[in-house]
Amino acid sequence: MKINKSTLIFIALLLLQLNSYSQVFESSDLYFEEAKKDVAEENFAKAAKMSWRGLQISPEDLDLKTLLGKSNMQMGRYDTARYVLKQVYYRRRKDIDILSYLVSIEETTKRYSDAICFVNELLEITPYSRGWWIRKINIYKKMGNFEEAERALKRLYQIYPEDSQIKADYNYIMLGDGVNAVKNKNFDDANEIYTTIIDNDPSNKLAYQGIITNELLKGNPEYALQYTNRALLTLKKDRELIEKKIGLLETLGRHEEAIVYIQTELKGPEFKEIQETTLPYLMQQSADFNEYNDPYEINKKLSELNGNSEALDYVINNALGKGYYIDAEYQLNKAIKRSPNSKKYLIKQMELYKATKNKEEYDKAVLALHEKFPTDTDLNYAYNKLMFDRAKEYVEARQFSLADPIFKDLVSDPNFTTEAEQQIFGILLEEEKFDEATDQIDKLIGLEPDNPEYLVRKSTLYQKMELFDDALNITRSLEQSYPLSERYPALYVEQTEAYANYLMREQRFGAALSIVEDGLIRENNNKRLLEIGINASSAIPDYEKGINYSKSALTFYPNNKNFKLKLSNIYAQNKQYEESIAVLDSLKTIYKYDRKIKNSLAEVLWYRGKNLEEEGLIDEALVNYSASDSLNPDEIYSLQRMINLHIEQKPHDEALEFINKKLEKNPNDNFLKFKKGVVFELMKQYDSAYYYQKFREVQDPFERNEWNSALNILTAAGLKNKLAATYAQASSDSLPFSTSMASLGYSHKYDAVNTFGADVNYAARTSGVGVQGGVNYSRVFNPTLYADVGVLLGTQFFPKFIVYGNAYKGLNDGYEAQAGIRYSRLQNDANFFTLTLGGSKTWEDIWLNAKLQLMTSPAYTVTETTIFGVDELTEFAANNYINFATQTRINISPRKDYVSFIVSFGSAPFNEQLPEGEAAFLSFSNVLVGAGYGHNISAKTVLLLNGSWINFKSPVTDSTALSFINQYNLSISIITKF
């Protein structure tokens, strides 16, 4: 049977799918990653399966439960999703994602009450979330609880008053409230509701209609007309409002005004019906009404018929009084045309502009009238009021140079003296002309000595000038003068806050504490003063006082996270680490994911570790550093201390193992790689040291050049061959002790632990030459223990042979111990045994060494032949000698050039330049002082220059003639590696 191609593809896809669902991992973390990826790809069935499998390994893993719940929710398995997600919810009450999932589940399954509970919890966490407020409103609507929906919407509008959609919804609800208020005859409430809607939305026609209806029901057609006019300012062409206005004017008997309104404002074709029908009707009504009843109309006709001035004045005054502004304008224009310079009519025209709020024309009229009639008292007031208002506008626009001269002119007007002086004071404050402002406020106090407001302003002025003591003195006097007022103690506390802040900036912490205590007398729970008190106490430092302030703050604000953090910090500064950690642990139970708390705990653990390190408790310090690093891995201080402690205090292999473990977690961390190179350098594995130390990050270009030089030196340290050549010149007061010597030394580093070498020395005096040669060998047994041995054979001036051996042991903190033994046989067959004990200490750029040599020469006999051929025996007694020497080298440049110094004293000479010679050297006390300089010509080659002076007693011509001899030694060496 043939199987077609499509069937094969289907089977392959099926097997692939089965395989993907049969994935098996050993770690729940891998199941979590797989499930998270499936959720991102919206493969929720597989995500649920992976989450469930991960929970078989880690049943309490909340992240896996979250994915399992979300996947079931997406697949419509709401009961399962609810069950799983609630398990997470009980453990993570503030988890926004979990709460949002539960809201969706409960809303979908129509468990609206539960959904509202979860939404409320979300709003406690994010109280200003627009989305969750709208979700809450919609759920209430689904429940049919429209009262709560409206209440929630009103709350949302308070939070987002500028949101157009929320504002529209809010206004819609308010309209319904207004209708209900009108039905229940709560007319004042209805007015307030409709006014609020109009303030929010000046174009809301329904609100205008509602308030117009309300006023008519109250029996106030005049107010109804006012709101109609206000509506028409926004809705100018609205037919209903236009007809309502005309109807109200008719009701009020103001037919003439309605007629004028139609004739002037309703001229378009859209108002043809009103023009043709309503206008003739109103004219008829007006004629019938005014013919017998209205004196205003009678006087108007009189002024039209014969220009009667009394009738004209009556018409103008009544028109202005009743708000017939169109009539008033018409009559005034006619009057002014007849008498253009009439002060009376010009003033009436000015009043008309003011009544109609035509500011531009009103201002022009005031200025023109003031210019024409400068002595008129009423016009002067209007003019000065205009200038005062204009100057205030300049102030609001911060055009102080324009405002200031106006206010200074107005000071002379008794109506504006005080207000003008106040404005001048305000300008001086804004311009920060504090000295002039002080004089100005004193002037205001002189005008109204009993006005406490001016004393408050003077006090706050002193505060701005940072004259806090003067400010507090004024406020203190106001407290005493007005003991029942709460304003002045509050101002006093506010000023102590500002004063304490200023003192803290000036780092006058003790003074700040006294101000804080003064303020707390009036308001012992003032949060800012308590905080300053804690900070100042910490800075002095007076930790006990800081702890007391922190505890006091927590009595008023027991759940304040900031004060708890400050208490923890000051405990740590006072080295009360256990108390500090206890405070932070209590915070951590509440704020499980708060990074600041974790960082603070990490910092305290670091301080405790540092304190333990200083006390020599290294292992305990490492435990604290490790805990600190795990809490805040972004800060590298704890990691640095751990690494440095391992390098300084632990064996090199243990330090290397520690760094390697850190590198497994952070393989690209260059700091760790560099420190690994440091350990390799201490282990004298220079190739590895060079490779890893290259990763050190150096930003400064100069420092980078210096570091490159250091790397070159490290490279040179790994070279296996070393060649040294030395020339030494010794001169003294006595010819027998003058000599020259040349040396050549070679060493080869066979491998990491074995080094072989050879030396040749050549000495020359007037009496002949001597040669010495030998080989040596050194071995490294472990990173802290190494040794060397050697043998030397020589002719005259040198011992016949020397055999020596030394061992060196590295200790903690840069110390090293040395022990050595040496056997020498001189040319006259004298034997010497030397025991050397020494120690050295290395700092970053200093090496210091102290060495004690104990020498002994057993008794021996020498056979000598006289000039007569008779052999004589000369016997030498046993002798013991001692010498103590100290040496130091100090690096003086980044290239590790150094200066060296040496001092020795004892009964045997100490001179590393010239090996032991004649036995006569050994019997007398001596002192040696020397200095040297080492210059690194390159990373591979160094030039050494050493000089020393020895002063000793010695026989010169015979064994009984002793004299002091000075010997001067100078040597130059060059050492190179290849």
Textual characterization of the structure:
The chain has 40 helices and 16 strands. Helix content is 59%, strand content 19%. The protein has 978 residues and is an alpha+beta fold. The strands form two sheets. Strands 1-2-3-4-5-6-7-8-9-12-13-14-15-16 form a 14-stranded antiparallel β-barrel. Strands 10-11 form a two-stranded antiparallel ribbon. The protein is elongated and about 170 Å long. Strand 4 and strand 5 form a beta hairpin.
Helix/strand-derived class? alpha+beta
Number of strands: 16
pLDDT < 50 stretches: 5-22, 865-871, 911-923
Q: Would you tell me the overall average pLDDT?
A: 81
Terminal Cα span: 81 Å
Radius of gyration: 52 Å
* Overall outline: elongated
What is the percentage of strand-forming residues? 15-25%
Question: Major beta sheet, specifics?
Answer: 14 strands, antiparallel, barrel
Number of helices: 40
| Order of adjacent strands in the largest pleated sheet | 1-2-3-4-5-6-7-8-9-12-13-14-15-16
Helix proportion range: 55-70%
